[in-house]
Amino acid sequence: MDSGAATWSLEELQLATRNHGVPLEALRYPITPLGLHYLLIHFDIPVVDTDTWRLEVGGRVGRPLSVSLDDIRARPSVTQAVTMECAGNGRARVWPRVVSQPWVLEAVGTAEWTGTPLRGVLEDAGLLDDAIEVAFEGLDAGIDGGVEQVYGRSLSIEDATADEVLLVYESNGRPLLPQHGFPLRLIVPGWYGMTSVKWLDRITAISEPYQGYQQAKAYRYRQTEDEPGEPVTRMKPRSLMVPPGMPDFMTRERFVEAGPVTVEGRAWSGWGNIASVGFSSDGGHTWSPAELGEQAGPHAWRGWSVVWHPEHPGTYELCCAATDGAGERQPLDPPWNVGGYANNAVQRVQVTVR
Amino acid sequence: MDSGAATWSLEELQLATRNHGVPLEALRYPITPLGLHYLLIHFDIPVVDTDTWRLEVGGRVGRPLSVSLDDIRARPSVTQAVTMECAGNGRARVWPRVVSQPWVLEAVGTAEWTGTPLRGVLEDAGLLDDAIEVAFEGLDAGIDGGVEQVYGRSLSIEDATADEVLLVYESNGRPLLPQHGFPLRLIVPGWYGMTSVKWLDRITAISEPYQGYQQAKAYRYRQTEDEPGEPVTRMKPRSLMVPPGMPDFMTRERFVEAGPVTVEGRAWSGWGNIASVGFSSDGGHTWSPAELGEQAGPHAWRGWSVVWHPEHPGTYELCCAATDGAGERQPLDPPWNVGGYANNAVQRVQVTVR
């Protein structure tokens, strides 16, 4: 039995209906339109009054800061296109089943984020010599795994002070939408989305590893519940195609007319540029290279396309597989771990040529 | 066995991850923020080039029209807040199970739509005396129920020429987002969302009832597959609450501190104003009236709130039930029909008081 015969509970369905993914046809946009970028909201979207909201920067720093949104907006600003994917993307296809947000393939998006480099803020606060990590905590609170918590994550000093890490207040040229972290969020390009803490409340330099639930318990690669596991960090290589032709409403199977079919998609990796994308029309038995296209910036997905010439009417299984500059290629079969993280197995699209 | 023990297939899950609902905490906004309004997209979001796009108005009219987006925008404009709900909202809780988009509760939203009254356009085209309906067809195409189709619906002349029916090009002050029908859609206040055809391509006055699949086969109240059934039209009364307190990530159960708790929500009906909203903290055995609040316009949901005084720590089941001006009240148990339409049974929220 593979996951195609699996079923999902009401609790999982509730998560699927509130945390939405990108409709796959929207992969044709280099920048995902407002409202179509994937969302994973662990708890509730908090209500924030910017008149009283302050970002507190403290812990192992020489000069603790309390900064308003205007203070942040007055700092040097950077706009960059960033592709972000949920670490749980693909979880619905891992087997044995893992119970959590049941993403199929669609937990990804690319936005143009505007903000200020985190490094400058940390420099102003003056990290003390014994600081080894920076913890980021949001205003969103709840219970996860039986633990009451605010959502929090940490980064090493090296990762936190990388050029591309931003404190962000705009997305696609507008103030952040409530669901994307208004008024201020972290954006850590290349990493899975759990890293980019939304609704920032406080940033704390710490001299011991951060022990928050989402860092120490969740988002770890484990083969058994008992082992500590390795942290989930950067995005593994993945490619997705815009399903060609016309869909069936219920099955999402596709129908195309005979003749050449241009298949296009996007590919990304947090471990380096995309080196190649392979395309298969026979379920992954044989592959041909796709043509690589544009990317909206060094941290954004890369377009790809291929002209497919189906030889005769019938049913085909289209697949795509990206390989990144670090030499890692998407697997044919889903990897498994306790959390169901980072299942970057190749996409499979059923197409009938008429 | 009730639907709480039901399970959902991969096909249903695929629909749930692409067609997103409003996170229930966002019911606190009178106008739903961009990107949080529910979406049901039967086929694919079409790509539209406004340089070549035209709305064709024809059929049983004296003066067929072919109008550009600029032509539409030059006409008298109206902005109105409209609450829209999917006819399939609540389908996941009907039993026996109905297989289609598996909404739990969240297929609703309120937007400020800007457009021009349809009636003026129909007057310019000059409906002929034998026209009995107006058909609306979109640019979205696919297969549903085994039938290849463009998405299409119709209205009687009386319904189509009502004051509040608009051809809409803006939502919340911005051009329509691609997923909401760019460049032009129909908005029919009070009716379930399937009526408000997106990505309009043509409007056709007809002298026989429209036979499109979404009118003649889908969206009908039927108790058996064989009967023609009655058409699904206006929204039944429904109220939803913002789940109070703090959630558990996985179960969405709520936790609140002892002491008075303000519970707020929204209520709406397509059959008249909301007359009252009842609140229960014991699973619907006893009820008290909520205080009714503002509504952003005659076609928008109405706010309501109640101060709940839980008497002791423990677990409670909160419910709310709206009654509309036509005297219809939400039922305690889900109604059933073949399509799983219009299940407006009361919302139930599990809350633990600590």
Task: Count the E strands of chain A.
Answer: 22
Major sheet of chain A: size, sense and barrel closure? 6 strands, mixed
Structural class by secondary-structure content of chain A = mainly beta
**Through-space gap between termini of chain A:** 30 Å
Q: What is the ordering of alpha helices and beta strands of chain A?
A: HEEHEEHEEHEEEEHEEEEEEEEEEEE
Which of globular, elongated, flat, extended, rod-shaped describes the shape of chain A? globular
What is the residue-averaged pLDDT of chain A?
A: 97
**Biggest interface, and residues per chain?**
A-B, 60 and 60 residues
Looking at how many chains there are and whether they match, the oligomeric state comes to: homodimer
Helix content of chain A: under 10%
Read across the widest sheet of chain A, the strand sequence of neighbours is 14-15-22-21-17-18
Radius of gyration of chain A: 21 Å
The residue ranges of chain A in which pLDDT falls below 50 over 5 or more consecutive positions are none
Number of helices of chain A: 5
Query: In percent terms, what proportion of residues of chain A is strand?
Result: 35-45%
